[in-house]
Write a structure and sequence with these properties.
Helix content is 7%, strand content 39%. By secondary structure, it is mainly β. It has 2 domains: 39-174, Immunoglobulin-like; 190-347, C2 domain (Immunoglobulin-like). A 5-stranded mixed β-sheet has the order 1-17-16-13-14. The protein starts with a strand and ends with a strand. InterPro entries: C2_dom, C2_domain_sf, SYTL1-5_C2B.
């Protein structure tokens, strides 16, 4: 299996205090060496300049080659990023939504020292027409800064289901500011219904045959509602689980695949042992939902359960980024040993 979701390999050099966390699952789970944290596609500086100006482009679908084509002609009256030098170095970038990672980004060349760049370039996507019609095109303009962060200059979003495909002419469209929800990566990806429980070492008493010699974290993935549908045939989803910082095969677990259902019921329990109470401050349970296909899996959304401090065993890590809801859920589990804590948490782009 391979995953096309901007996923990077993240091998954590364990601090001496890091627990040797073992795991087992209530279902037979096949093991994959793929590991890592999913990166956000929103990278750059959104607040430095106000969006202005317009972009000229045309859309077409080549039936013969099954290819979606975005003809980017030019931009005019763009914002000036470097006011001292009175310059911007703009380029145009496109994504297909809702899953930006699946089809990947396309971008034009960079035109230097101009707020009226001319491109005359065609950005191409190999995609079936019926799949394209459930997508949206996100086209944005950026200033290129090779030494720092690229600056956002404006965007336009096109609903391809309602697009007039007989219109192949170049037209001007005003650039709009990025919405607050887009800047924060807030987009509805569904909701996960789950319960978690922490069993401290030896807490069940000497007479209990299942009394764990080390602490255990139990994760009960019940169901997911309102998943993104990336293709007309529906969603074949499954859930992956890691306990970070461990991204080894030992840490990786997954549920079975539920086919053609945007509201899959998994009812799957995973148990991780090797926990000591102090480890709960530094560990993070990452649950991600994927759409399964024969050659690739596509990221749909996920949650990270932890304290969200940005640190793990004294080391700064980007995956310790739990939301307020996720932190509160984890804290409730930490304060209520041996009790199932129920939660309904929104999936996010991580």
């Amino acid at each position: 299996e391979s995953d096309t979701a901007s996923e990077i390999s993240f091998q954590f050099n364990k601090h001496k205090k890091t627990p040797s966390i073992g795991s087992h699952s209530s279902d037979m789970a096949s093991v994959s060496s793929v590991s890592g944290s999913v990166l956000s596609v929103y990278s750059g500086d959104f607040g430095s300049v106000d969006a202005q100006g317009a972009v000229e482009f045309a859309l077409d679908y080549d039936e013969k080659n099954r290819e979606f084509q975005v003809h980017v002609s030019q931009c005019k009256d763009l914002a000036v990023v470097d006011e001292k030098k009175g310059r911007s170095d703009p380029y145009v970038k496109t994504y297909l939504l809702p899953d930006k990672a699946r089809m990947g980004k396309r971008k034009t060349s960079v035109k230097k020292r101009t707020v009226n760049p001319v491109y005359n370039e065609v950005l191409r996507y190999k995609i079936e027409k019926m799949v394209l019609l459930i997508q949206k095109l996100n086209l944005s303009v950026w200033h290129n800064d090779p030494l720092g962060r690229n600056s956002f200059l404006g965007e336009i979003e096109v609903d391809l289901a309602s697009w007039d495909w007989s219109n192949r002419k170049l037209n001007w469209y005003p650039l709009k500011p990025r919405s607050l929800s887009a800047v924060n990566g807030v987009d509805h990806r569904g909701v996960m219904n789950l319960s978690i429980k922490y069993v401290p070492p030896g807490s069940l008493g000497k007479m209990c045959p299942k009394n764990p010699p080390s602490g255990e974290v139990h994760i009960w993935v019940k169901d997911v509602k309102d998943l993104l549908q990336l293709r007309p045939s529906g969603v074949d989803s499954f859930v992956k689980c890691y306990v970070l910082p461990d991204t080894s095969k030992k840490s990786y677990q997954k549920t079975r695949v539920i086919k053609r259902d945007t509201n899959p019921v998994f009812n799957h329990t995973i148990v991780y042992d090797g926990f000591h109470t102090e480890d709960l401050k530094d560990a993070c349970v990452e649950l991600t939902v994927w759409d399964h296909e024969k050659l690739t899996n596509h990221f749909l959304g996920g949650i990270r359960l932890g304290l969200g401090t940005g640190l793990s065993y004294g080391i700064s890590v980007d995956w310790m980024d739990s939301t307020q809801e996720e932190v509160a859920f984890w804290q409730e589990m930490m304060s209520a040993a041996n009790e199932w804590i129920e939660g309904l948490l929104p999936l996010r782009s991580l």
